[in-house]
Amino acid sequence: MGNRVPLQHKPSDYFRERIWISADPDERMVPALAERYGVSRFLWASDFPHADHTPEYVGDLNELVAMFPEDQRRAFIGDNARALFKLG
């Protein structure tokens, strides 16, 4: 086995500092993951319209957003992307 690089922090700390996760509306596990790791690193992203999106895409997105606690919805659908891309 090769040399290991010692971690100064827990892997979950690195995740919270360096990882962003985007999801289409069919990713139903995202709210549970956001609850576990913190909503600030999760965002909705899409290349809509795309061949594999159904006509119910916006309805599906509304359903996914509704799965988040009300105080986290705005972060998921826009505020986190503004933070990531440093938009005003």
Give an overview of the whole structure.
- By secondary structure, this protein is mostly helical.
- It contains four helices and two strands.
- 47% of the residues lie in helices and 7% in strands.
- Strands 1-2 form a two-stranded parallel sheet.
- Strand 1, helix 2 and strand 2 form a beta-alpha-beta unit.
- The model has no long low-confidence stretch (mean pLDDT 89).
What helical percentage do the residues reach? 40-55%
N-to-C CA distance: 47 Å
The strands making up the biggest β-sheet line up spatially as 1-2
Number of strands: 2
Structural class of the helices, strands and pairings? mainly alpha
Briefly say what this structure is:
With about 90 residues, this protein is mainly α.
Sum up the structure in keywords:
single chain; 88 residues; mainly alpha; two-stranded parallel ribbon; 4 helices; 2 strands; 7% strand; elongated
Give the topology, please.
Blueprint: H1 11-18, E1 21-23, H2 30-37, E2 42-44, H3 57-66, H4 70-84
Parallel strand pairs: 1-2
